[in-house]
UniProtKB/TrEMBL annotation:
Pfam families: 7tm_6. It is a multi-pass membrane protein. GO terms for biological process: signal transduction. Keywords: Cell membrane, Membrane, Olfaction, Receptor, Sensory transduction, Transducer, Transmembrane, Transmembrane helix. This is Odorant receptor. Its main location: membrane. GO terms for molecular function: odorant binding; olfactory receptor activity. It comes from Tetragonisca angustula. GO terms for cellular component: plasma membrane. The chain crosses the membrane at residues 17-39, 112-134, 162-188. It comes from the Eukaryota. InterPro entries: 7tm6_olfct_rcpt. The lineage of its organism: Eukaryota, Metazoa, Ecdysozoa, Arthropoda, Hexapoda. It is found in: Cell membrane.
């Protein structure tokens, strides 16, 4: 949250500065890549365009994530406040275990997501260093051809003349992209799983209201207990709908752009990998990038499916009550 400028404890000015630094870091890759695409188009170098497209798409997705959370800051602050309030309320009611189980499931998925992307990113980061390291360990009569981390154009100087300086800059930008993607998606996963957990709590309250009834108690007392339980269920369902509406308002367009750009990136990296089978280093780098994109797209879709499943489970619980 702090990396994305989303920590509610920070001042507005601090959060704005963090967002500016993150966007500037991503932009330092975006603009040189755009210049390289323009140069490749002028030279009719289709391979160069295909090589640049995935990285410009990745930086675009990163900017979408950062700016969406920045411009919808008020809605996200509302969500954070609702999460804290509902967590305390359910703990007092003895129903926190239902919500906690689903949220912990989301947290485990987010951790797995982080570890997987870090593995792909490490491969992507280390591959350009293979030939420079070989030049040190097993030198030849001539320097091996060096492949930069990303294809960019700085206009004012030749990238090959400053290989390691350019590599450090591109590595910094790539690390910012990784931190932003993982951080933003982690927050979304936890929030969406929290929303799913609220519907699961509704289902739990429905079952609680219709089972373990003591028919030997006074009829009025029994009716009052059932009324109170169903009232709590309705209030929780209303709260869950409100939470979902705020989340949907803050994320719908962002998700549409991210999914569309991810699909485009997967297509271009897959084509690039197929075209570079005769260049193992380049093919491995493209394959790692393609794998990370596919996993990112999968994880963008999974929390929504979890939310749908819990909504359907609530419907099934209501249907079972009607049958009874």
């Amino acid at each position: 949250m702090q990396i994305l400028g989303q920590d509610p404890r920070h001042k507005t000015s601090t959060r704005n500065i963090i967002v500016i630094i993150m966007v500037a870091s991503v932009g330092s890759i975006f603009f040189p890549t755009t210049i390289e695409i323009y140069a490749s188009l002028r030279n009719r170098d289709i391979d160069g365009v295909l090589e640049c497209l995935p990285q410009i798409i990745a930086t675009s997705i990163t900017c979408v994530k950062i700016l969406n959370m920045h411009f919808n800051r008020r809605n996200f602050d509302k969500l954070y406040q609702m999460v804290a309030k509902q967590w305390v309320q359910l703990k007092l009611n003895g129903e926190l275990h239902v919500l906690e189980e689903i949220v912990m499931q989301g947290n485990k998925i987010a951790q797995f997501y982080q570890h997987t992307l870090v593995v792909f990113f490490s491969l992507f980061l280390l591959i350009p260093l293979i030939f420079p390291v070989l030049d040190i360990i097993h030198p030849l009569n001539e320097t091996r051809t060096r492949q930069q981390l990303l294809r960019v154009n700085y206009i004012f100087f030749n990238n090959d003349d400053y290989f390691f300086y350019v590599y450090l800059h591109l590595s910094w930008g790539a690390i910012i992209v990784l931190l932003t993607v993982v951080g933003a998606d982690w927050i979304y996963m936890l929030i969406i799983h929290h929303s799913s957990g609220l519907f699961a709590v509704c289902g739990h309250q429905v079952q609680k209201a219709t089972t373990n009834l003591n028919y030997f108690t006074d009829k009025r007392v029994l009716e009052n207990d059932m009324y109170e339980n169903f009232r709590n269920c309705i209030l929780m369902h209303k709260e869950a709908i409100r939470f979902f509406n705020i989340l949907n308002e803050s994320s719908q367009r962002s998700y549409m752009f991210q999914i569309g750009l991810s699909m485009l990136s997967i297509s271009t990296t897959a084509v690039k990998t197929a075209l570079n089978f005769n260049k193992p280093e380049e093919a491995m780098r493209s394959a790692a990038f393609c794998g990370a994109n596919q996993f990112h797209l999968f994880l963008l879709s999974l929390p929504g499916q979890v939310l749908l499943d819990n909504c359907f489970n609530l419907t099934n619980d209501m249907y079972v009550i009607c049958i009874k």
